[in-house]
Amino acid sequence: MKKIRIFSGMRPTGQLHLGHLAGALTNWVALQEDHDCFYGIVDWHALMSNYAESENTRQLCMDVLLDWLSVGLDPEKSCIFIQSHVPQHAELFLALSMITPLGWLYRNPTYKEQIQNLQNKDLGTFAFLGYPVLMAADILLYKAEKVPVGEDQNAHMELSRELVRRFNHFFGENLLPEPQTLLTPTPKVPGTDGRKMSKSYGNSLYISESPESMWDKLRTMMTDPARERRTDAGDPDKCPVWDIQKVFNRDPGQMAEIDKGCRTAGIGCIDCKKALNAHIAEMMEPFRERRARYAKDPALLSDVLAEGARRAEAAARETMAQIYPAMGLITRADRV
Ligand code: TRP
């Protein structure tokens, strides 16, 4: 039976945290068991907003790759690659740009919001306006049927589907399939200060964290601010540690005990944190083993990327071989 094709991408932002794990990667790892998965580190997308600090892009990509592999994305099961290694992404981006009305791009809520919020960067570029067109190209190049992304990508996904309809209208019925969003319930993981976990807030628990520093961060985490003394009763619903328990504690019986213990001052915050730390440490043990294996042999990482790019490009060529004639272009004779 033919497996459903999946594409998803992540911008190379450097070390990933437990928010990325719970919000995306755990699902990506599960999908590789029974889907045909393509996962791209989308470095061109990163440059669209970070072109002025491009020096670190290479390192950021390698950090993401190592995190992906350590959580269990498996190059034997999934195609793992870097977007810029497969030139057809840029080619299809150009092809789609022929039929992308500027109005669609100017109306994109993400564009408007980012132009507003990132005033320290000059985002008034041609490429940044076209961000969703490159994202559509990423997906359509592989004719991916399902795209696991968060709700924040809804507008981009809708634009991808509108582009498919427009492409098929001009250039040939049903050459490209409309990609569906694979919305998975993604538990929110707060950072150590209770705000959304984000590198820029300095409140992140990283996938690459050592057991010692993980415990250090959990131990000093803020809890229900009203629970000042060990003898005060607490309210888990006002505690960021509890929100993290809800995502990573695998023992419902223990959860019930902690909930009751907190509310009755039967246990202290440190007891709750120790329990959470044990669950996270157990989950991360295999991450560390895989990381160590890849980190000690950099050639392994290059091999993963080379093999990923080779497989991705083979799939991309098949699609482009249909796009060229559909758009009225002559396919190079040695590419037929
Ligand atoms: N825009 C996505 C994000 O910011 C990243 C991305 C680029 C992507 N291309 C994609 C996601 C293709 C899914 C499919 O998260």
Question: Explain this structure to me?
Answer:
This protein has helices at about 20-30, 45-50, 55-70, 90-95, 100-105, 110-115, 125-130, 130-140, 155-170, 210-220, 240-250, 250-265, 270-295, 300-325, and strands at about 5-10, 35-40, 80, 145-150, 180. The chain is mostly helical and about 325 residues long. The protein folds into 2 domains: about 5-185 and about 300-335, HUPs (Rossmann fold, 3-Layer(aba) Sandwich), CATH 3.40.50; about 200-290, Orthogonal Bundle (Tyrosyl-Transfer RNA Synthetase), CATH 1.10.240.10. The strands form 2 sheets. The protein has a 3-stranded parallel β-sheet. A two-stranded parallel ribbon has the order 4-5. Helix 9 links the parallel strand 4 and strand 5. The relative contact order is 0.14. The model has no long low-confidence stretch (mean pLDDT about 95). Bound molecules: tryptophan (TRP).
In short, what is this structure?
The protein is mainly alpha-helical and 336 residues long. It has helices at residues 18-31, 43-50, 57-71, 88-97, 102-107, 109-117, 126-129, 131-141, 154-171, 211-219, 240-248, 252-263, 269-295, 298-326, and strands spanning 4-10, 35-41, 79-82, 146-148, 180-182.
- CATH class division of the largest domain: Alpha Beta
CATH evolutionary superfamily of the largest domain: HUPs
Distance between the termini: 27 Å
- The strand order across the widest sheet is 1-2-3
Q: Which percent range describes the beta-strand content?
A: 5-15%
> How many structurally independent domains?
2
Annotation, overall tally of beta strands: 5
User: Which hetero ligands occur in this complex?
Assistant: tryptophan
Order of helices and strands: EHEHHEHHHHHEHEHHHHH
Helix content: 40-55%
Could you report the average pLDDT, rounded to the nearest whole number?
96
The biggest sheet amounts to:
3 strands, parallel
Q: Can you name the CATH architecture of the largest domain?
A: 3-Layer(aba) Sandwich
C-alpha Rg (nearest Å) = 22 Å
Separate helix tally:
14
Uncertain spans:
none
Global morphology: elongated
Which structural class do you get from the secondary structure elements? mainly alpha
- Enter the CATH topology name of the largest domain: Rossmann fold
